[in-house]
Amino acid sequence: MKTYGVIMAGGGGTRFWPLSRKKIPKQLLNLSGKDIMINETIDRLSRVADYENIFIVTNAAQKSEMLNLVDGRIVENHIIAEPAARNTAACIGYAAIELIKKYGDGIMVITPSDAYIKDVNKFADILKIAVKEAENTNKLITIGIKPTFPATGYGYIKYAKSSDAVKTVLKFVEKPDRETAEKYLADGGFVWNSGIFVWKASVILEKFKKLQPEIYSYLQRISDALNKPDEQRLIEELYPLIPSISVDYGIMEKSDDIVVVPGDFGWNDIGSWDMFNVLHAEDSCGNIRTGDALTIDCKNTTVYSSGKLVAALGVDNIVIVETPDAIMVCAKDKAQDVKKIVDELNANGREELL
Amino acid sequence: MKTYGVIMAGGGGTRFWPLSRKKIPKQLLNLSGKDIMINETIDRLSRVADYENIFIVTNAAQKSEMLNLVDGRIVENHIIAEPAARNTAACIGYAAIELIKKYGDGIMVITPSDAYIKDVNKFADILKIAVKEAENTNKLITIGIKPTFPATGYGYIKYAKSSDAVKTVLKFVEKPDRETAEKYLADGGFVWNSGIFVWKASVILEKFKKLQPEIYSYLQRISDALNKPDEQRLIEELYPLIPSISVDYGIMEKSDDIVVVPGDFGWNDIGSWDMFNVLHAEDSCGNIRTGDALTIDCKNTTVYSSGKLVAALGVDNIVIVETPDAIMVCAKDKAQDVKKIVDELNANGREELL
Does an H or E element contain A242, and which? Predict the structure, then answer.
């Protein structure tokens, strides 16, 4: 059975503003200084799916820039453009029918486009276990991340402890408070929900049919339109009507045959600027300097310059980002709120900065 | 008797980096948004000295830019260029001999070029008292600033309490610690040393003769050279040899006939970026935004943009300055250390940023 890589890359580019923009969202940024995140994701996936079997689902606005930047890794018709953002359930369902109808059933290895993974070999080993399980069973398989600290920013998966690599999922739990997160960490039977899924395309469609019949009916109508002359027009008409729900809520939490493969490969979703230290070495005072940057009497301060000199003096726990048309300075513990700046610029009609 | 204005404008431009540079030091900056500081200084002085009797002492590097920027207020030969920086005693002595030899004895009203004064009318009234005293006596007159808080960054002058506007100086005291400053404030018999002096040119030269004979001998030799064909060459030869000492140490503290006119006219030396609030209104959270600036969830934060958008998020007590070639972010209570950045850039050979 073929293994497909499916990369969900619809991110809107607000969390790493001012470096990320609508047209250059985080997955197209080279935050590590090595390559853009989506290329690192493609190359990682190629350990379990041939390049010619890897697909990207993104939005129409990003498609042409993305095609440019993946630099030959992915051909144009493997970059699937959603006519509208309808959350992960629609995205995955659409990819499933596209694959089945045009390329034949197979195992989908679905991942976000913009996470960091330190140990690519370990990651590939975990994926191989999951692919084998998907081949041999009709289960929904998710990759869990062994927690390394009591994170309050991720959802958790509780599983039945066993000596098997593939474990039965007992329940999904929402982002916990600190105390609860500490309990999960101590318990040892919890992993972070990475948003990486492995299953047969036909199996997930069956799940849609059973658990999300409305979404399924739209997927059926889109499926009927595929390979027809007015395919594009029909998809543009139907897709925006699909109910918007995440695959976690819509499918995973409602299913009783989910398994998880816990992995420990140095995963980080690099969700905001305060995670920049995952990608770059800190000096002895916890400072990171990228580009033409100077830190004097600073602690735990990240300075990202894309051109001009940025000098920081006597500040602690600050992120400073310089781009050709905007400068951002934020408290590290407010890095999750960078979207507030984007919202304000939006409200002020500052399109040129978004 | 004529009244001369003498503006000491040799500042090197490090304290307001990156806005101030060697060629555009603080006195040539428009920090208030109204006019450059030296022009505000000239216009204030014009209340007691006609424009054609106002002189600037600066360094050779700044002279041509300064001539441009004073915009016709001062003619070229009234901008006296020191061949080297030799502190305020030499600067004032040089101005005194230049005035006497070329324009005749008169009262010198000597001020720094880069202080802020809120109430120009009150300032002029105080200066008029001092000028009258200088006319009627041979005393050295200094303008004292009634302290409004226990400042530790200024020198103080202790005077004999009396009901007269002109008071006898008892002693000069160095920058005090906080506790001492509080005592001075409570005592009521202390004023800040503003660096504003009023005296006859002939009187201060007599003081040099008596108290600083070595400096005086150089001044004499320079005086002999004035109006001669090789004036410029001789000054360039002699001036750098003058001992470097401040007029406070060299003359004021050694004299016993000093008087002070205490004034209360909203004086501030705007010594560093943390004083920017003297020039600009703060919002209800203590933030100041100049240019294309955005503050979200910030407190007591100053953002100065000279062009690009600068967005600050969730930071307190920070100064952010954007210029076309450099960005500076510093803790407000470290604003006095901005020179450290300049020193570092100097050490790194970054001439283009100095």
Answer: none
Contact B327 A309 (CB under 8 A): yes
Extract the tokens encoding A350: 């500052």
* Residues B242-286 pLDDT 10s: 999 999 999 999 998 899 999 999 999 998 999 999 999 999 999
For B112-163, the DSSP string reads ESS-EES-HHHHHHHHHHHHHHHHHS--EEEEEE--SS--SSS-EEEE---S
Q: Tens of pLDDT along B19-39? A: 999 888 999 999 998 999 999
CA A105 to chain centre: 24
E strand or H helix that includes residue A156: strand A156-159
Contact present, B309 and A354 (Cβ < 8 Å):
no
In B, which residues are within 8 Å of A326 by CB distance? 308-311
Question: Quick one: closest CA in B to A312, which residue?
Answer: B329
Quote the CA–CA distance of B41 and B206 in Å, as a whole number: 28
Nearest CA to CA, how far is A24 from chain B (Å)?
Answer: 19
pLDDT of residue B14: 87
Question: Cα–Cα–Cα angle for B57, B62, B64, nearest 5°?
Answer: 100
Query: In angstroms, rounded to a whole number, what is the distance separating the alpha carbons of residues A29 and A114?
Result: 9
pLDDT tens by residue, B52-62: 999 999 988 88
Beta carbons of B329 and A320 less than 8 Å apart: yes
Helix (H) or strand (E) holding B92: helix B87-103
Q: Tell me the whole-structure pTM to 2 decimals.
A: 0.90
